[in-house]
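Can you give me the bound-state structure? Components:
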Amino acid sequence: MRKVCVAGVGMTKFGRSQKSSIEMFAEAAMEAIVGSSIKPADIQCLYFGNVYGDLEEGQTVMAPYAAREIGLSAGTPSLRFEGACASASVAIRDAFIAVAGGFYDLVLAGGTERELAMGTPLATRAFEMASEAYYEGYAGITFPGVFAMLARLYSKKYGVPLPKLKERMAMVAVKNHKNGAKNPLAQFRNEITVEEVLDGPMIAEPLQLLDCCPFTDGAAAIVITTEEKAKKMVKKPVYIRGVGQGSGAPLYRQKDFTLIESRVAAAKTAYAMAGIEPKDVDVVEIHDCFTIAEIVASECLGLFDFGTASEAVEKGETRIGGRIPINPSGGLKSKGHPIGATGAAQSYEIVKQLRGEFVERGTQVEGAKIGLTDTLGGDSATLVNIIYGIKG
Amino acid sequence: MRKVCVAGVGMTKFGRSQKSSIEMFAEAAMEAIVGSSIKPADIQCLYFGNVYGDLEEGQTVMAPYAAREIGLSAGTPSLRFEGACASASVAIRDAFIAVAGGFYDLVLAGGTERELAMGTPLATRAFEMASEAYYEGYAGITFPGVFAMLARLYSKKYGVPLPKLKERMAMVAVKNHKNGAKNPLAQFRNEITVEEVLDGPMIAEPLQLLDCCPFTDGAAAIVITTEEKAKKMVKKPVYIRGVGQGSGAPLYRQKDFTLIESRVAAAKTAYAMAGIEPKDVDVVEIHDCFTIAEIVASECLGLFDFGTASEAVEKGETRIGGRIPINPSGGLKSKGHPIGATGAAQSYEIVKQLRGEFVERGTQVEGAKIGLTDTLGGDSATLVNIIYGIKG
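Here's the bound-state model for the whole set.
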């Protein structure tokens, strides 16, 4: 396997957009391409993430149109990946495999999604389809319900009283909004308080409105290439040190959802490939679709012992400046969650963190050398972890 | 790049099924696994094609549930590919890249689709989404319309009078039904006549009902591995000699749809990788979603000079026993077209043809050493060609 690097990265403003999914993707892609000092024609393959192009815009088979929109040729393959909210990370991991194995030298990976025009009723129905359809979806389950049950399970299993857990969950939202407020690309740039979270509308007890990430329009993309090429293209290439992907069973077949099996397996694979341990990670972008999701994920990733992550949040260990900063971008909670793009946006953040480019933004994790992305698709169906490093 | 082979292959009966997409896929996958003399746990990654799981069954993120259904573990990655009707061939090509590059040694690729329960109105709307959405779809175009226009364009460009072209198009349907009648897995096993085609209901002038392939439920899968492993697993490993994939622009940006740019580019790549020319191909499975589609495809693939393929059909050159047999399986027209599975079903047919396993069925292409699959997604958006051979 060859060493693989990220050259340029690009990302749109997250929020509500008047652009189509393809137009947003083109904007992010061109930023990544220009930032790589290449031309579109240098790209040998497009790895493209999108989830609901059909329901959002009546557009299936979006990858080739996206490829042509940015100037790729008829002979350039374009692959659409759908792994629910992890789609772009699935695309990035697969792009890594093709470059590491020597099939391609230079490719583009990313994703795009345009959710807000769907409206809440259709979006809620659409997202629910990322639960198992025949037993769970038909029973009326939606993601707020799943993660509300997870919060209750967590509270009971680890003996963290629900009011205390709710307070700590609120602190996750407060932290992520504090970070996101400084991110010019974030959807919500307002700081919030624990009281505001706890006083908010109830969505699925114990989750309140500000425990939940929003619907979002947006896109992100990264250029992936060989170490050799990357060194010529950019001043600070960032290495992809390890990748891992897991496949979760439907929830009704899982024993304990606080130990998310696809994540534990994916992280193990990624750490082994990178030759590191969780303690070596300096900065993390975690899939905080709900506040409890960030807490549980940080444990499954080995960043905290099981049952201890909510206390760590209260102690400030996951803030910028804390022991292991989580979601300096603002996370899905504040930055936004355009599901097909989210994994690429996480990679965008980590690559720029490792390049030290967020000093001016005020959210630089100082001295960060190794970063980790964690992207969840469905309620645990597809899980991708990617480890980036400033050294190969 | 390492040499890559297909070991076992599997396919369900095509037609109407009471099984879910995942259950159908599991049936095909287990046949491929058993035929490879392996256990599910030996599979390192699943490459899975599906197009409309959300609209058909309310199921997004289907790949991991399919993976777990056949006994793969939480640590086994599963990737869903959507390239409209070419989805399974996109999956197979990507699986080839991972094995050729040395990332994996043994993987499973295939696809599944469950269309018939949608009903014609929703299915028609769904399929239309594989046209470009903002300019073409909104203008009311559907695939029968696109291919009807292609037939008229072909007639005019090459000076084949429309009544003559219609007769020859009907001969494509007659040939494919004759082949499909012998295929126990085909959806339609009735032979038809040219008169029946020409007397049928008009769908989009000049395409009549029997010029069009059906909606279908079905699944197919193949095990892809290294040459070394395949030789130990099966008596007759079949090599993947070359792969090519193209990305077509929206139709309104293309100059001449009789020269399908994504197909010309994909075929060129595949032939070059295989180190062969079109004349070296012994048997072909072509994407005959409409009868005119088979004619045009066979020219873009270099099997006939441009403008001559309809005459070749009349002369019987594409029959079994003819110069270059096309669609001995019955093709999409007779075998059926479960869109997410079609590419894998084409590969199933070619692998078995090269193994010489269709003598009893009565559709063996004698002495076939090199076979080609051709799978079209959308009206030309994604095009995949795969070349198989009995030698590496």
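A couple of observations. The two ends of chain A are 12 Å apart (CA to CA). Residues 43 and 107 of chain A are 5 Å apart (CA to CA).
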